[in-house]
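quick q for whoever's on today - can somebody do inverse folding on this one?? i tried earlier but teh output was garbage lol. tokens:
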């Protein structure tokens, strides 16, 4: 609001100032020469008896106009030189980049005075000098930004499709660098204003009878001891307007990083929180109690889950996108990206407290969804695998390289010696996924976390990767946490399934009970949405209306209530706890589905379900 008010005030001065005070600012009064402040003349008069306050107000339009023109020259020239290396030939692009680098290294003030001398005195020369002096820093910023965008797949696809250079810049490059470029230009306008006013103060900018704030400061400086207000007023206008430009830049920067406002989620009451347990007593390899992942604004993506993974066990973590599956796994490995914060009452791995002790190192292996994000395209695959053994196990370079070849062979990559010398782009998608699994096996992992390892793979390769994970678990004795949104994939490998929704675990059950024994309506809907070989043609699959909640959108009741066909009033006001219903069976639902109600699907009329549990 402060920035908006200040901008409106500047616009009002620029538009209405010359109209309301133009005659008074130009009126010469020989009887009122060099007078001090008075009721008739707020800031006094100049050597011709003209009202200084009126001249400061009238000069707002000229100062802002010339500042904006110089900014347009600087930003326009910077954009042209910034994107040129991306759309021109290699030699010309290198020449432009080198030229910009030299100009950026040259002292800015000397470069400005050099340009002002070339273009001569006057407002036009000053606009060109200040604008062109701004071109190198803008061009350097744009070059750095476009370099990161130009290597993207969608830019490469546009080139292959024959998109022209102009359209490539306008549609694919500039929109993706607009935000930081606008922020930089807005904040740089403060420097442009000061530079332009400085040229006018030195007599190189605006010339009489025209005037701007820099010219007025020059005219009144020799009277600073007689009438200091008259001399300081133009300078104060420059400083305050520069602060307005900087403030607008800060507002835009803040708005650029802002998301939809989120309300703070209340912390659970201590008596509602589960009591801490000692995970090693029941043989659990991993034990977490009240695990939470919180982002700024009180947005909790994981809202207090508790889970145990026994040594050698295969556990599936399923749910829709955004349910908190991957963040839960990243929290176990201490890999939650900044500014996320992980908190838990208990978080233990193999007897070690992960809240106070170092990371588990190679005892916990991560297999990520996109292998190309885990593999450096510029390095050979064998070298990347060997680095794990060198850094974490202290192996020599030769022993690490030999182990890399051995691990590539262990994941059934043919000719591992030759493949170790290749780079990731020479691998197929399935082979890259195998290489990432081999990277996790460079140590001796006790837990392998596989985050959507079969995404974007065809069915045959998907089956091979799943078989490989099962073999790795059998050969190494490591536990497996398989994250997926595909129940069919999890059912092939895992023994127990955890179902997540809205940052919470809503059901835990054995794989054998998944098809017919799921108790939570959400789990049953997920099962019903997957066709099987026995599904009759033309059968309507289950669909879940609505969408999953975003972090911070969940209310006081059950997070699945807005989409549930069995919802009742209690579901909207009270959140059910995860309650044990049998061996390896837990469910968080007030009205779970049992064998009787499973035969009679719920019918919803209005806000209440007619089905009796």
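ok took a stab at it. sequence:
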């Amino acid at each position: 609001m402060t920035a908006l008010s200040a901008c409106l005030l500047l616009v009002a001065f620029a538009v209405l100032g010359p109209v309301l005070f133009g005659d008074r600012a130009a009126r010469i009064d020989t009887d009122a020469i060099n007078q001090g402040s008075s009721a008739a003349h707020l800031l006094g008069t100049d050597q011709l008896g003209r009202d200084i306050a009126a001249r400061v107000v009238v000069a707002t339009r000229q100062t802002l106009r010339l500042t904006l023109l110089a900014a347009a020259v600087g930003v326009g020239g910077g954009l042209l030189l910034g994107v040129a290396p991306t759309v021109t030939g290699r030699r010309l692009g290198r020449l432009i980049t080198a030229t910009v680098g030299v100009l950026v290294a040259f002292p800015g003030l000397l470069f400005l005075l050099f340009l002002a001398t070339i273009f001569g005195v006057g407002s036009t020369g000053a606009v060109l000098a200040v604008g062109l002096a701004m071109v190198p820093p803008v061009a350097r910023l744009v070059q750095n930004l476009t370099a990161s965008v130009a290597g993207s797949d969608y830019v490469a696809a546009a080139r292959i499709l024959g998109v022209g250079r102009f359209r490539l810049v306008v549609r694919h490059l500039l929109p993706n660098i607009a935000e930081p470029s606008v922020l930089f230009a807005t904040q740089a306008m403060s420097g442009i204003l000061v530079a332009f006013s400085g040229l006018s103060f030195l007599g190189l900018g605006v010339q009489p009878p025209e005037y701007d704030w820099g010219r007025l400061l020059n005219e009144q400086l020799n009277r600073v001891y007689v009438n200091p207000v008259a001399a300081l007023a133009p300078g104060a206008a420059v400083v305050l307007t520069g602060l307005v430009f900087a403030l607008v830049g800060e507002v835009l920067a803040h708005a650029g990083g802002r998301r939809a406002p989120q309300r703070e989620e209340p912390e659970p009451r201590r008596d509602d929180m589960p009591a801490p347990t000692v995970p090693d007593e029941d043989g659990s390899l991993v034990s977490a109690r009240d695990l939470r992942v919180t982002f700024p604004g009180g947005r909790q993506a994981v809202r207090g889950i508790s889970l145990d993974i026994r040594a050698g066990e295969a556990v599936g973590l399923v749910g829709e996108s955004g349910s908190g599956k991957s963040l839960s796994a990243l929290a176990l490995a201490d890999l939650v990206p900044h500014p996320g914060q992980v908190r838990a009452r208990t978080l233990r791995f193999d007897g070690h407290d992960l809240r106070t002790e170092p990371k588990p190192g190679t005892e916990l292996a991560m297999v990520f969804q996109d292998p190309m994000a885990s593999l450096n395209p510029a390095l050979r695959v064998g070298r990347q695998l060997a680095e794990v053994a060198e850094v974490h196990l202290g192996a020599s370079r030769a022993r690490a390289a030999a182990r890399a070849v051995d691990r590539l062979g262990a994941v059934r990559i043919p000719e591992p010696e030759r493949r170790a010398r290749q780079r990731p782009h020479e691998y197929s998608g399935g082979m890259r996924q195998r290489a990432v699994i081999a990277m996790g096996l460079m140590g001796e992992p006790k837990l392998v976390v596989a985050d959507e390892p079969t995404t974007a793979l065809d069915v045959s390769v998907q089956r091979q990767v799943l078989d490989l994970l099962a073999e790795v678990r059998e050969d190494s004795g490591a536990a497996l946490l398989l994250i997926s949104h595909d129940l069919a994939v999890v059912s092939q490998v895992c023994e127990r399934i955890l179902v997540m929704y809205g940052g919470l675990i809503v059901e835990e059950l054995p794989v054998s009970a998944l098809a017919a024994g799921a108790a939570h309506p959400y789990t049953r809907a997920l099962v019903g949405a997957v066709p099987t070989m026995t599904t009759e043609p033309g059968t309507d699959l289950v669909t879940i209306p609505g969408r999953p909640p975003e972090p911070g959108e969940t209310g006081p009741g059950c997070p699945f209530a807005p989409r549930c066909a069995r919802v009742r009033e209690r579901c909207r006001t009270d959140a059910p706890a995860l309650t044990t219903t049998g061996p390896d069976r837990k469910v968080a639902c007030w009205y779970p589905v049992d064998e009787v109600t499973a035969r009679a699907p719920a019918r919803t009329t209005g806000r209440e379900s007619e089905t009796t549990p």
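fwiw DSSP finds 20 helices and 15 strands in the chain. also The radius of gyration is 34 Å. so keep that in mind when u check it
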